[in-house]
Design brief:
The protein is mainly alpha-helical. It has 9 helices and 3 strands, in the order ααααααβββααα. α5 crosses α9 and α6 runs antiparallel to α8. Its cofactor is Mn(2+).
Length: 230
């Protein structure tokens, strides 16, 4: 999409204008989607997808880069107070970038396999840990609907215990904040901006329909990579 190409070019231009001591910093950019904004309809409208990606995710990326630049500058100056103050902005905006980058991969148009149930080792693991795929979906929907305020509901892999877990995180906290050995396989955004234009304030309807475009192949591939069969 031309819009995202323009963003990438602007990022390069902006980086070129940075002071010399900042040019070595890694800057983050808005990732491209592998599908068009309207490709997930009717489960998720094209209008929501465009706003969610171009506006909300881009804002997290912009503010994350800004906070990292400020952190680098404060560190160079030995300004410990500013370094500490910036931690919340880095966690929030960095988490927003991490979470949304996963979220886009967790979705796929129906014609490209969206909604097809997991197969292979992940399918077996879901049955073993939750009883069935239906039971897992019910659990994630219930916990996502009950989450107060804004946040995420996750299907994660505990690499140390080699088991699947369902967790929720508040605001833009990534799953790793719940445990250093947790790997996010699927994350569902339950901030209002993810569904309000289409589902109004009925979060359970959004949670019910998003499974129609869930990309289980992505989750299965990641599971097999992180937890290979013996």
């Amino acid at each position: 999409m031309a819009f995202r190409t323009l963003i990438a070019r602007k990022t390069l231009i902006s980086s070129a204008k940075l002071p010399q001591q900042w040019r070595s910093l890694t800057t983050f950019s808005l990732p491209d989607l592998s599908y068009d904004y309207g490709a997930l309809e009717p489960a998720i409208s094209g209008e929501i997808m465009q706003l969610h990606h171009q506006k909300h995710h881009q804002t997290y990326v912009t503010n994350y880069n800004k906070a990292l630049e400020q952190l680098h500058d404060a560190s160079e100056k030995g300004d410990a107070s500013t370094v500490v103050k910036l931690q919340s902005a880095i966690k929030f905006n960095g988490g927003g970038h991490i979470n949304h980058s996963i979220f886009w991969k967790n979705l796929a148009p129906i014609k490209e396999g969206g909604g097809e149930p997991p197969k292979g080792s992940l399918g077996w693991a879901i049955d073993s840990n939750f009883g069935s795929l239906e039971a897992l979906i019910h659990k994630m929907n219930a916990e996502g609907a009950a989450l107060q305020g804004s946040g995420w509901v996750w299907l994660g892999l505990d690499k140390e215990l080699k088991r699947l877990v369902v967790e929720t995180t508040g605001n833009q906290d990534p799953l790793v904040t719940k445990g250093p050995t947790l790997v996010p396989l699927l994350g569902i955004d339950v901030w209002e901006h993810a569904y309000y234009l289409q589902y109004k304030n009925v979060r359970p309807d959004y949670l019910k329909n998003i499974w129609k475009v869930m990309n289980w192949k992505y989750a299965s591939d990641l599971y097999e990579k992180e937890c290979p069969a013996p």
